[in-house]
């Protein structure tokens, strides 16, 4: 029997993609939320000294995976959310990397401590960076027959973009005025049976 234990803080961020994949699959796992004061203890267990990381135990063998997207891709392949066939999986990964580029830009805003610089970054993010990336996602989603990125159904990148949009809070509504297919994806994932149940019951989680 394979067991999974996710180590991450009580926040959405990069670890939430992993939680969403577990929710969508119905696979049980331990969602271990690290207290900030305890991080040095758990940091030592992480391959790169970072969180999230996932502990996978199969009998006497244990593997630890770090890097949120690597974990997400691993679980997506395990649970059937990686796309159908090599070509579609490659396209899924391509869009996933584009979402990562956008998330990295958003992280600059989240990490900035200087309030003046933070507002400057936010303005650029809102007026230039987000629309630049969203136009690619909008174009792809507008062609979809299912409302997801690919007609084969839900993949990990649908969850990945959904989580990023969730991090924007009410600011995403301004984006949705210009990117209707992106809004449709957000709504569709929100109403996905297992995802909806998870969102309704997940612990109060910081940004």
Automatic annotation (TrEMBL):
Q: Where is the GST C-terminal domain?
A: 85-207
| SUPFAM superfamilies referenced in this protein's UniProt entry, alphabetically | GST C-terminal domain-like, Thioredoxin-like
Q: Which UniProt keywords apply?
A: Transferase
Q: Does the keyword Transferase apply?
A: yes
Biological processes annotated in GO: glutathione metabolic process
In terms of superkingdom, the source organism counts as Eukaryota
Q: GST N-terminal domain spans which residues?
A: 2-83
Query: What are this entry's molecular-function GO terms?
Result: glutathione transferase activity
Task: State the Gene3D superfamilies in the record.
Answer: 1.20.1050.10, Glutaredoxin
| Keyword Transferase in annotation | yes
List residues traversing the bilayer: none
Record-linked PANTHER family? GLUTATHIONE S-TRANSFERASE
What does the protein in this record do?
A: S-crystallins are structural components of squids and octopi eye lens. Contains relatively little if any GST activity.
Q: What is this protein called?
A: Glutathione S-transferase S3
This chain's source organism reads Brachionus plicatilis
């Amino acid at each position: 029997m394979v067991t999974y234990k996710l180590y991450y803080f009580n926040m959405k961020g990069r670890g939430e993609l992993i939680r969403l994949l577990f929710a969508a699959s119905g696979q049980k796992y331990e969602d271990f939320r690290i207290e900030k004061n305890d991080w040095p203890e758990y940091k030592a267990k992480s391959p790169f000294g970072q969180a999230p990381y996932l502990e996978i135990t199969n009998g006497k063998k244990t593997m630890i995976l770090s890097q949120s997207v690597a974990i997400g891709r691993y679980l997506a392949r395990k649970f059937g959310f990686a796309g159908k066939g090599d070509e579609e999986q490659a396209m899924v990964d391509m869009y996933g990397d584009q979402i990562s580029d956008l998330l990295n830009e958003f992280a600059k805003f989240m990490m900035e401590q200087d309030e003046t610089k933070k507002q400057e970054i936010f303005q650029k993010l809102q007026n230039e960076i987000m629309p630049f990336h969203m136009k690619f996602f909008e174009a792809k989603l507008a062609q979809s027959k299912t409302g997801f990125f690919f007609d084969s159904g839900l993949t990990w990148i649908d969850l990945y973009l959904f989580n990023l949009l969730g991090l924007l809070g009410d600011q995403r509504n301004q984006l949705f005025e210009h990117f209707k297919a992106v809004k449709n994806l957000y709504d569709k994932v929100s109403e996905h049976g297992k995802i909806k149940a998870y969102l309704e019951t997940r612990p109060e989680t910081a940004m």
